[in-house]
Amino acid sequence: MPSARLLLPACLALAPLAVAATPVDYQFDPVHTQVVFNVDHNGFSRAFGRLKVREGTLRFDPDDWSKSSVQATIDLTSLDMGDAAWNKAVSASAFLDTAHGDTARYVSDAVEKRGADEGVVHGHFTLRGVTVPLDIPFRVNRIGRTIYGLHTVAGFSSSLTLDRTAFGMTSNRNSVGTTVTVWLEVEAIRGGEAPSSSKDTHDAPAQ
């Protein structure tokens, strides 16, 4: 029978294998994922808009970010500028041109870790039929169960700028800025768990 002196090193050698993390798949939560942008309006102010993510998935490995990935489809018809006339103008052919394509899509090529909770996604973004390389810096906010134990969630934040002319939106330069600032607030639910709904917060027990 093996002695304790022989068993101990063997157990220690196997221990890292037992706790090694693996990539986890998540589905974007459309209720708690926001795409907010703004652009200069004739130098007077910055106009704000919001878009929804139609669907998306991400894979995240907390121990090896290089094994992570993301893909997301943005619903351009969900545009909300806070005014019906603004929505119509921005959805028209001069800008988003939703009549010829109602989605935009991002697909990652690689994920790079640059700090304890910060990284960059390298990938490609397609809008109006034009695909350009796009790096998205991001911060990992939190990964864990929600306060009421409804879901296992991964939360991320990001901000970046886009040049709208790179996607063929070259009109109205005198009145609408060409640099668009974008903020991303993402919550993704671990695969296999039910998606979130607007009732989750309302039905949660009072504290």
Automatic annotation (TrEMBL):
Residues 25-189 form the Lipid/polyisoprenoid-binding YceI-like domain. This is YceI family protein. Residues 1-20 form the signal peptide. It holds the Pfam family YceI. PANTHER family: PROTEIN YCEI (PTHR34406:SF1). It comes from Luteibacter sahnii. Keywords: Signal. InterPro entries: Lipid/polyisoprenoid-bd_YceI (IPR007372), TTHA0802/YceI-like_sf (IPR036761).
